[in-house]
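P.,

For your records, the input lines for the assembly:
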Amino acid sequence: MLLEETYTYREIHEQPQVLARLLERERPAAQALAAALRQRQVDYVLIAARGTSDNAARYAQYLWGAVNGYVVALATPSLFTIYHAPPRLGNALVVGISQSGKSPDIIAVLAEARRQGALTAVITNAVNSELARQGDFVLDLGAGEERAVAATKTYTAELAAIALLSCCLAEDGTRWEALRAVPDAVAATLSAHADMTQVTRRYYAMRHCVVLGRGYNYGSAFEIALKLKELTYTVVEPYSSADFLHGPLAVIEAGFPVLVVAPSGLTLNELRHLVQMLRERGAEVLAISDDAELLSLAHTPLPLPQPLPEWLSPLTCVLPGQLLAMHLAYARHGNPDQPRGLRKVTETM
Amino acid sequence: MLLEETYTYREIHEQPQVLARLLERERPAAQALAAALRQRQVDYVLIAARGTSDNAARYAQYLWGAVNGYVVALATPSLFTIYHAPPRLGNALVVGISQSGKSPDIIAVLAEARRQGALTAVITNAVNSELARQGDFVLDLGAGEERAVAATKTYTAELAAIALLSCCLAEDGTRWEALRAVPDAVAATLSAHADMTQVTRRYYAMRHCVVLGRGYNYGSAFEIALKLKELTYTVVEPYSSADFLHGPLAVIEAGFPVLVVAPSGLTLNELRHLVQMLRERGAEVLAISDDAELLSLAHTPLPLPQPLPEWLSPLTCVLPGQLLAMHLAYARHGNPDQPRGLRKVTETM
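Structure tokens returned:
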């Protein structure tokens, strides 16, 4: 099978259109949710999500925290399912994020939130799902069916839905204009990395690696790590650069591959120092960035051709990671669509 | 140097006394904090911690959630430090957990909480630290100086402080009695694993592994993984068993080592199914459990000789992991006290 005929390839390349459509269609729904949040004077936000959607939730932690002033907690679904001891949710907004809308544990958290009278919202690609029925408000990803097991277009669509709500809460025209530039930047980034022959060759035999990101791109590190695990079976550990220094740094030895997600912004300075330290220890550095100096420190620079403000950078930063995982998978075992041992919908409790 | 002369060995074996002392001395402080929590009718809890202390915070998420009804959020310190955009904390209890009390980012979160008028508490081994000064209430670990770089006795002391507060909030004599049995169970578990010669031999060359836990022992999986990384430089990934099924399962191939933390309790059934599935895929299974059937499924059973109720099981479940990491480190490079590239206090922003 040609790579271009795989679902993974096609879905990755659908991202610019999916994002443009979402930003156009879902603004009214996001505005209605923003109005409800203001009216209810919600105290904090609780998000229930698993896998890729949980990585999108990490983005919401930073964006809704830094820009909109909300503490965002990530739910521990087993309190609701296995332990049958849900906590008091109080005046929270409870958000479920799930591509399929079918995960029983995420549905259980939202159902309990409704029972307790909390405001609920659902971000999903399945507006007729059981999960969607639990949402007072629903943001429809509208990404079209995702047939590859590893989620790509629904991940960036989830990020866009999260950014859209943030813009509607902030009521700031500049932010809205920046958000509208995202689909073009995504297209430009995919084009810039159309040829990954050399990178694929260099990391063909990679058995393990570490992915580092911080702040807005903490979730990007997790999502790139997850794609590499799902598609290439590499043992990959994601960290915030701060957590990495609290112990895991010890695993680095000469030649150890470290992928750093380091776009321009407030975290760049710290990440530059970290890359310098990693180089001194002989690590093999891959860097996703739009900063020329940072890219020059990497063995494998993965440039971002069309920079976005830091708060939107996760929408492009993840793309070289998606492409790297896909190309490595295709080179190694020929079928990125169907990783061994995985199904599209994972029904956990 | 003899293993018995290392700080790591001595501090691991000090744990029964440290825990007994903490439970005896800190009850009044925990009761005062519990009274303040009830009086303020706190809406939710926010914990700021890094590294080992963050793994203790994961235990608090489940225990304070399931037993005491609080939603527990883990702070994203960079919002307070790098982005200078702290969220509105509202009527939260904000808890800082740090052995040294010196981490600037944790101090920054607590200082902002005070500025906003939130209730604050600090769990630390350094009652005269800058962090302790930010706490309306302080729980003193009283573990004595911890000189090994990898934290062991302060980790279980942090768990005990968290359990102590839970007991004071629950006002349930049965729970208090169960908690008082912990130091003995810890001593019995350490004795049961005094000889790790065979296990050390079997995993001497292990390059990577996965550690799985769920619910109360989600944090145990993270802490065991961190000890293995810090001390033995193995590439180790911790997961909740639910998250593991959402993608990372793909990395498992024949002979891949998986350590499962599976004591008796509500999560045992799910973990038993998972171990059976892992065996079918040819994984090499290590199991920490008091359940005979589960232990019989493992290549390397690591039994818990003195079972505790599930909510206290993290205090013994971590011990075979600490011992395994220490013995592997000693066998591999002779010095568990000073892992390459790490310092005792990591001052991150």
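Two observations worth noting. The two ends of chain A are 36 Å apart (CA to CA). Chain A has two domains: 3-180, 192-333.

Regards
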